[in-house]
Amino acid sequence: MLTLKCPYCGVDAEETELHAEGEAHLKRFGPGSSDDDFESYLFMRENPKGVHFERWRHQSGCGKFFHAARCTMTLQVFGTYPAQTLEPPQDIKDKISATYPGWSWREFQ
Amino acid sequence: MRRYSAFAIAREAARFHTGWERAWRSPEPKKKYDVIIVGAGGHGLATAFYLGKNYGITNVAIIEKGWLGGGNTGRNTTIIRSNYLQDPSAALYEKARSLYETMSQDLNYNVMFSPRGVIMLAQTESEIRGYQRTAHANALQGVKTEFIGPQRVKELVPIINLDGPRYPVLGGLWQERGGTGRHDAVAWGYARACSDMGMDIIQKCEVTGVRQEGGKVTGVDTTKGPIDCDKLGLVVAGNSGDLANMAGFRLPMESVALQALVSEPIKPCMDVVVMANTVHGYMSQSDKGEMVIGGGTDGFNNYTQRGSFHHVEETVRALVETFPMVSRLKMLRQWGGIVDVTGDRSPVIGKTPLGNCFINAGWGTGGFKAIPGGGWATAELIAKGEPGPLSAEFGMERFIEGRFIDESVAAGVAH
């Protein structure tokens, strides 16, 4: 079973007490934005085979949203971090680089 | 191709079965094809078959990274139905269902289509209203379904428990001509027919890159070398996101794991397909006697072809309530497939940002039932370069235009 450490309450939470909330670091576009930007924000997804950044919610716990870096091919978890950030922290990026040198995900690498 | 027939069986029986030929050839790739289809699953092979049959395009290669029909085509629960709410879906899935009716004859290959009937149980008041609405919509669409009461459900499924503690059975949406088919045979039948038309099915050949020039595809790089093409069809289900990455565009899809399981074989006890969408489990009995069980998807992106165990537990728990005899069954095996799910839970059959590259993807958890219809529509799209009436509504542009085919609401469940 997938286990993620909640960066807020510190619990090693099992998948059953978490809820997957989709892609992380989405740039939000609202009224007044172009059709392409709005479509991209609402529907287009990275869906990579490999490193992925995603939002999770500690639903049956502290209830907070957080981010996780995970590999979709091996289910390896590189780490979790609070959601109040626009990009993944350097230590998590380094951990990914140790496993997948030269990785990239959207503009991050 | 030697036709299969009762006479052929008698002939081979008389000579110790030494005369059967291979069902399809396994050639090395040529330098160039008119059309390359990536993905030798049901939809890919059906697309190739109808390219040949309906449009006379037979210089076609179907490239498969694994083995033929080894992805979701060989991993689903083989349910065939067309009781969808939205008009475009009903048209597409009903086309597929009607093609299943004559598929064994059309392909000269027994796909064991068994129109045993499909019930979708209504277990809440809102489900009753939802399915009554679907039954009315189906009547207008020319898809034969009816809403039936609990007593009729009990007559059709004697092993069902109508008075479950949480979700009693209040009725059901009944499609008499829905049913099941032999999923592998569908892939094998199409493959044999494609090979017979001169198409090349190239297995164990992974696409590693999509070669482009001036916004058009010129060919693909594969583990067996580069292959050129005039037109490219991407029909790779769960791997669509990965191939789109190679081709340089994004898709409105995410890939997640969907699991199924089968029990030990038991004597015949249920001769229809039953789907319980509120509690999220569906079940049918295979010809071997195994109860074939499906449930829900995982919530997170995954390419591992195995799912989380707690979903198996949830699915079986739901079924035990509705079918108490399930609690005495031993499960034989469990497996997962990777399905690509779109925002509105309807597939994409349409053009891509690359002019001569077309895509058939996003079938989510319900691609098997659509194989002949999806192949028919995708073949038309590739042959003409423009979508035909079946696929007109299913282009990716529907997301930018806000013209969704919203089946997630219609089914109330990932189907």
Key terms for this structure?
heterodimer; A: 109 residues; alpha+beta; two-stranded antiparallel sheet; 6 strands; globular; B: 415 residues; alpha/beta; FAD/NAD(P)-binding domain; D-Amino Acid Oxidase, Chain A, domain 2; eight-stranded mixed beta sheet; FAD/NAD-bd_sf (chain B)
Can you walk through the features of this model?
The complex is a heterodimer of chains A (109) and B (415). With 109 residues, chain A is α+β, with helices and mostly antiparallel strands. Chain A has one domain (3-99): Folate-binding superfamily (Folate-binding fold), CATH 3.30.2270.10. Helix content of chain A is 17%, strand content 28%. In chain A, strands 3-4-5-6 form a 4-stranded antiparallel beta sheet, with helices on one face. In chain A, strands 1-2 form a two-stranded antiparallel ribbon. The longest helix of chain A is centred in the C-terminal third of the chain and has 10 residues, at 90-99. Chain A is globular. The model of chain A has no long low-confidence stretch (mean pLDDT 95). Chain B has 415 residues and is an alpha/beta fold. Chain B folds into 2 domains: 29-78 and 183-252 and 344-411, FAD/NAD(P)-binding domain (3-Layer(bba) Sandwich), CATH 3.50.50.60; 115-178 and 254-342, D-Amino Acid Oxidase, Chain A, domain 2 (2-Layer Sandwich). Helix content of chain B is 30%, strand content 26%. Chain B has 12 helices and 18 strands. In chain B, helix 2 links the parallel strand 1 and strand 2 (60-63). Chain B starts with 5 loop residues before the first helix and ends with a helix. In chain B, 55% of the residues are buried. The model of chain B has no long low-confidence stretch (mean pLDDT 94). Classes of the chains: A alpha+beta (109), B alpha/beta (415). The A-B interface holds A 1-2, 15-16, 19-20, 22-23, 35-36, 39-40, 42-49, 52, 54, 70, 72-75 and B 239-242, 244-245, 250-255, 298-304, 308-310, 340, 342-343, 399-400.
